[in-house]
Structures are given as C-alpha cells and as structure tokens.
Specification:
Keywords: ATP-binding, Nucleotide-binding, Transferase, Ubl conjugation pathway. The structure is a single chain. With 267 residues, this protein is α+β, with helices and mostly antiparallel strands. The chain contains five helices and nine strands; from the N terminus they run αββββαααβββαββ. β6 and β7 form a beta hairpin. It starts with a helix and ends with a strand.
C-alpha cells in the first residue's frame, strides 16, 4: 500500500524536472523522457572539450526508481567508452549515484557530474583496474586508446541520405515527340520589297523618251501604257488616232516598271 504514493511522488517530481529543463540551457546535452514511460529517460552526452573523449557522442540509459528522489537513478553507458570508472557492460562508478546522493539533486545535475567524470577519471575507485593503472603509469597510451575508442564507437550518428526523387514527366513525354527544324527566311534590308498588287487604274513612274522631241504623259492602265502626244502646230500631229503611220520609239524610264506592263507609244 505504501508503494503507490511513492510512484505518484516520483512522477510528480519528474514532471517538475521536465518543467525546469525547459528553462535550462543544455548546450549539446540531450535529455528526454520515454513517451510511454516517464520514469525511463535517454541522454546523449558529448565528450568534453580537451578530454580524450572530445568529438564523441555517448548514449546513456536512465531509469528512475519509484521512490525517487529519495533514491538515486541508475545510469548505464550504451556507447562503449574506454574509462576506468565505466565497466565493459556500461555500469558507472560515481559517488553521486551511491553514497553522495541527495534528494536535492536532479537528473540534469547527474548528467553534468558524469561529464566531469569523463574529464577527470577517478582511478582510486575504479571499475576496471587495468585501465586505472594505465591512466596513472602511462597517461599518453591511455589517452590514445580512449581516442581510438571514440573513433570506433562514439561517432555522431548521421541522418540517412535520401535519394533524390526522379523528375515528374507527363504521360506524353516530350522525348517521344519528333522535333523538326523550321527554317524561315529572314527579311533583308537590302532586298527589294515585292511590288504592290493594286486593282484598278494606277499611274506609274514618269518615262522619258530618249530620241524624240515629243514628250507625253504615259498612263498605265491594267498592263498597258499609252502616250498621248501634245497638240502641235498642225491639226493632224497631235491626235493619237491620226492617219500617220505608227512607230515605236525606245523609252527610257526613270523608275522601275512592272514586268508585264506593255508600253505602246502612239505618234
């Protein structure tokens, strides 16, 4: 009958510590309770700077007893570590977890003490006497072995790489559609513009007669040209329908005429 109140007391105390952790600056330390059991915690402790364990990340399992905080929690190294106060199965020799425990302590303070233990081992109270002896007699070799274990067992876990997704293509892939080059003529500034197509009567450019004194206006009417002579001093020279014979004179144009325009000169 007395155990149930202790469980409630431990749960109440842990909830208070969770609220206090929200106000703390944990740095690189991770301390989280199990979602299914508030009395079971996981911690990730970074190796202290300047120690042989620097650069390592150590997983620690924490179990809170039902009579907490009157009894200390139990801690276990999940990550292998070369340390005289940590056994091969992860058990830890730390005064705070034994005789030096106080209800005023918290899980966070225990983790901080564990970090100090990595910086300053206690070879006087070892769990692994050979490592403690090496620590005292051959510190250089001890530190080299501790760093080697960090490289082998305590490297930070990297997030798994996710393969990039292939690009999404429509059902009618553009690769299946044949491509055809379409060549279009580029208009040149030097090329003459095509002749305008105008229906009806139009007046062409002026035409000069190269070997005649008679000059006339040429009227181009739908593909033919007619020169009407000026009125002369006599009555029979000016008319285009007079009885004199017809002659064709060579005409010199001052502008370009259309091919297909026949020039007929009536004298």
């Amino acid at each position: 009958m007395s155990r149930r109140p202790n469980v409630d007391m431990a749960t109440k105390r842990i909830k208070k510590e969770i609220a206090d952790l929200a106000k703390e600056d944990l740095g690189n330390i991770s301390l989280t309770p199990d979602e299914a059991n508030i009395l079971h915690w996981k911690a990730i402790l970074p190796g202290p700077a300047g120690s042989p364990y620097e650069g390592g990340m150590f997983d620690i399992d924490i179990k809170v007893p039902h009579d907490y905080p009157f009894s200390p929690p139990s801690l276990l190294f999940i990550t292998k570590v070369y340390h005289c106060n940590v056994s091969s199965n992860g058990n830890i020799c730390l005064d705070l977890l034994k005789t030096a425990w106080s209800p005023a302590l918290s899980l966070y303070k225990v983790i901080l003490s564990l970090s100090s233990l990595l910086t300053d081992p206690n070879p006087a109270d070892p769990l692994v006497p050979p490592i403690a002896k090496e620590y005292k007699l051959n510190r250089k070799k001890h530190d080299e072995t501790a760093r080697e274990w960090v490289r082998k067992f305590a490297q930070p876990k990297q997030a798994p790489k996710v393969a990039p997704k292939p690009p999404i293509q429509s059902r009618a892939s553009t690769a299946s559609i044949p491509r055809r080059a379409i060549s279009r003529p580029i208009p040149s500034s030097e090329s003459p513009a095509p002749p305008a197509q105008i229906a009806g009567t139009r007046r062409g450019p002026p035409i000069e007669l190269g070997d005649s004194e008679d000059e006339g206006d040429i009227e181009v009417v739908q593909g033919s040209s007619r020169v009407n002579g000026h009125a002369g001093s006599g009555g029979g020279q000016g008319g285009g329908t007079g009885g004199q014979g017809r002659g064709v004179k060579r005409a010199k144009t001052s502008g370009g005429g259309n091919a297909g325009d026949a020039i007929v000169i009536d004298e």
